[in-house]
Amino acid sequence: MITATIGKKFLKAYNAKYQTQYSAKEFFIEKYLPVFFDHPKYMMTGGNSPLENPKIQWKSGKYPSQEERKTRIAKIIEKIETSEPDASIAIGFPSLDLNSTTSGQTTNLKLPVDTNDIYCSWIGSGLGVGIQGGLCILFDNEKILLDLYDGWEFYRSFLNNTPQLRGNQINTWNGQWLAHKFDSIKFCEDDPTADLHIFETKDDSIEVKTQSWVIILSRIAFTLHNPQLIGYVYNLGQTNTTIGFIPFKLPKIRKPFELYQKIFGVNNNGERHKQLETLFGTAFGFKRACQKGMIGIEALEPKGLRDIIEKSKWPSNKEDEKSELTYNIYQIWILAMLNNETLWDQAQIIASALERYASGTEKARKTRSNILKTLLESVNKKQFIENLIPIIADTNEESIFEEVAKLINIMPTDNVPYFLTLIRFQYSLKK
Question: Rounded distance, CA 166 to CA 423, Å?
C-alpha cells in the first residue's frame, strides 16, 4: 500500500506546485490514464486489471484499438468504484487469493481503504525508480516525485515515435530519467532529452537500459542536501519482493566523491566523476547492500578491495591509468570509512619512513625486506605492533614508529584493518 502513500504525497505536491485542486480520481482520469494507458503501447503493464489483455503483446504488432482502450478504462474505473480493493485494481495491494504468489500483506483486520487510495496506488506505482538487480525504489521526497512526473511525457513521446521501442518500462525509464535530470553537467532545461543515451537493441527491439543504483543515488546526493532520504525497495511481478524501508545517508554517499576531488582533483568536464560512479559500489549488489540497514559509505565499497583488507594481498605495481584510478578509489573509500582525513597524511608519513628503512643499508636489505613484508601483512593491531618491534630496534627514526604504535593502539578495532591497508597502498605506490 506504500504506492498509495507515495501517490498521495505526489498529488499534494503537484497541486501545490501548479495551483490545482485535483482529487485522486480526477488526476487518474485526466492526467494519468491518457499518458499511461490511452495509447497503443502502454507505459506500464496493467497487470490483472481490466486495463490489461494478456493476449495482446507488443511484439506481435497488435495493440488495443481506441475503442478497446476506452472500454478497458471504463471497466477499471467501474471496478475501482464498486469492488473490494485487491491486486487486480490497486497496485501493490495483496491478492485476495491466499495461495497466490502476490498474496502477501494479508490480514483479517478491516483496514480503512477508500477509492482515493486505489487511484493513488496507480499514480504512485508510476513513480517507482528501477535499478540494476530488478528492484525498484519509491522515494519519499517531493522534488524527486515531481521531477519523475516531468519525465513521463518524454517517455510517452519516445514510445509514440519509436516503433521498435517496447513499452511497459516506466520504472526503468524513471531510473534513467532521474540520473539524467540530476546530471548537473549535461542536463539542459531547454532541451531535456539532449545527450540521453539510454537505449539498447535486443533482438529486433529497442529497450531502455537499466541504470546503476550508484549513479542514481550519487546524483540524488549531489542534488538534494537532505541529511537522509527514505526509500521503499521492492519488486512487483509474478512474485512480489519486499526489501522494505531503507534510509539513504546522502552526506555519506557524497563523502567518497568529495574526498576524491579534494585529494586527487577532477577534470573540468566531469568525466572523472562519471568514472567514479562506475567503480564505487561494485563489491556487491544493491540487495545485499540493503541488508546493512542503510545505504551510505559502506555500500559504495569497490570490487576487489576486500581481499586486500582481510587477506593482506598486495596490489600489483601496474602503472597504467586504469590501475592508478582503481588504487586511488580504494584509498579514498578506506579514508571515507575511517572518517578522519588526518590519517591520509599519517599513512604517507609512515609509508615514507618504511621506505627509508627498507633502503637503509645494502648489507641488511634482504633482512629488512622480510621484516617489512611481515609487518605489511599484519591485519590487526596486535600483529602490527608486535611486528613493528624489530623495526624500532633497528632504526634511527624510532620516534615515528613509536607514534605509529600509539596511534594504532588507541584506534577503534574496526578501523585498524582499513588504516593498515591504507599504509600498504601508500608504501606500494612509493615503491
Answer: 51
